[in-house]
Specification:
The chain has two domains: 18-174, Galactose-binding domain-like (Jelly Rolls, Sandwich), CATH 2.60.120; 177-432, Jelly Rolls. It is 5% helix and 48% strand. It starts with 17 loop residues before the first helix and ends in a 15-residue tail after the last strand. By secondary structure, the protein is mostly beta strands. The radius of gyration is 24 Å and the shape is elongated. The chain has a nine-stranded antiparallel sheet. It has four helices and 29 strands.
Length: 433
């Protein structure tokens, strides 16, 4: 799970591999050196036949396996293409296809060097996919490929791609941009409950997706696609102690489990912040609308209790996921939001979309307040301009988010949207939950 970034900030712990540092220094304004490691996807998710790592494509032995690299151009014009590669042994014939045109080259040599492939004409702005296929080889592998160099009229400072591995950006870039909708709450109002409805359109339930419905300042609550056979309802609360290692959290700052629903797993999470986690394995369906209800209220001694409920039409009842108590916290709900992310880099080339509808907040006096406005934001991968396949807004009665897949249009950061008001507050017997 990505720690939600409501704005843009620089990455810390910057590291650059020697090869990428050397390559970056050779790029001019009309030249883009696109690293394979952060901008390329394999045609199959299987591990055999070739792999993509920090240094690019290696171990490529399977003719049926091909690789696609993406870069976004900001203006039309000509583009010349080079591959920076080595052939460990023998001679190899490769094909590069883009914009409906294919070029083949025969290459050899066991040291890294640039090989000119050909020239393409780009008719419009947007993402261009360069697909590299192996035709024939004499050695055990086709080639090790580190980067694609682009040069010409269509290439300038606005050309978009993951430029290097600073701050582990090959990983983040291949995951793709995370996108958010932030629902402003009325000022000077203590909000105890947050209600939202979520629909994943058919065909958008991509593996690696987290469709997060009810986000708040201290945690998140939504649904995931974890594999071809597993889906989850996930609710987590961050510890006030900032660390990626849950074992290092002092006892007095650990998230305390108060109760959980039937079949719900509870434990701790780490790596991207740490805290208490709960999830229910549930085979939710694309095309079906699910309801989410979150409660947050102070519970004394500088603690706040967060409780999550999930309503599936297949079950026709509200189900408790979990209730957590967070120390060193004394607040009602703040920063209500939703987000969409891909948490598996191998699926960062696949587009996904989610709809959010009928958002409501309930204050401590029992008043339901309809939330009809939302602001679109995105994470640092988008903010630094490494990925621009991000979008969000309002459509009909819904808000929506979309990301990944290298679509060419994008939503300007911090755009505001408003959906039509329904005037129909949720009919929930809160006392019976």
């Amino acid at each position: 799970m990505t720690l939600l970034l409501m704005g843009c900030k620089a990455n810390e712990n910057t590291t650059v591999s020697d090869i990428q540092a050397a390559e970056t220094g050779t790029v001019s304004e009309k030249t883009a050196l696109v690293p394979i490691g952060g901008n390329t996807w394999k045609s199959t998710k299987e591990k055999a036949g070739g792999s993509i790592g920090e240094r690019g494509i290696t171990g490529w032995s399977d003719k049926e396996v091909y690789f696609t690299t993406y870069a976004r151009v900001a203006k039309p014009g000509s583009v010349k293409v080079w591959l920076n590669l080595r052939v460990p042994e023998g001679k190899t014939k490769l094909q590069v296809e883009a914009l409906g045109k294919a070029q083949t080259i025969t290459v050899q040599g066991s040291t890294l060097q640039e090989h000119y492939v050909g020239e393409w004409q780009v008719a419009d702005t947007g993402y261009v996919a360069f697909t590299i296929k192996g035709i024939t080889r004499k050695g055990s592998t086709f080639a090790d490929i580190t980067s694609i160099k682009l040069a010409g009229e269509a290439i300038d400072k606005q050309t978009t791609y993951v430029k290097n591995n600073e701050g582990n950006f090959f990983y983040w870039g291949r995951r793709g941009p995370s996108v958010h909708l932030n629902y402003p709450l009325p000022e000077n109002t203590d909000v105890e409950w947050f209600y939202n409805e979520l629909t994943v359109p058919e065909g958008n339930d991509v593996i690696g997706s987290y469709f997060m419905a009810n986000g708040f300042a201290e945690g998140y609550f939504g649904i995931q696609v974890n594999s071809e056979s597993e889906r989850r309802i996930l609710f987590s609360v961050w510890s006030p102690f900032q660390t990626d290692d849950p074992n290092s959290i002092p006892d007095n700052q650990k998230i305390q489990l108060l109760k959980k629903g039937d079949g719900v797993y509870t434990g701790e999470f780490g790596n991207e912040g740490s805290g208490g986690q709960s999830y229910l394995k549930y085979n939710w369906k694309a095309g079906t609308t699910y309801k989410f209800l979150l409660q947050g209220k102070p519970s004394g001694n500088e603690h706040t209790t967060y409780t999550a409920y999930f309503f599936a039409p297949e079950q026709d009842k509200w189900q408790l996921i979990a209730s957590f108590r967070r120390p060193k916290t004394n607040t009602y709900l703040k920063r209500t939001h939703s987000f969409l992310e891909n948490f598996l880099p191998e699926y960062g080339d696949v587009e996904r979309k989610v709809l959010f509808s009928n958002q409501w907040a309930r204050d401590v006096k029992g008043n339901w307040i309809e939330l009809t406005k939302a602001q679109f934001t995105a994470d640092n991968t988008a903010c630094v301009g490494y990925r621009m396949d991000y979008g969000g807004g309002q459509s009909g009665n819904d808000f929506y988010l979309r990301n990944c897949g290298f679509f060419s249009d994008y939503t300007p950061m911090r755009s505001w949207y408003e959906r039509p008001a329904t005037g129909k507050a949720p009919q929930i017997n809160l006392e019976s939950l």
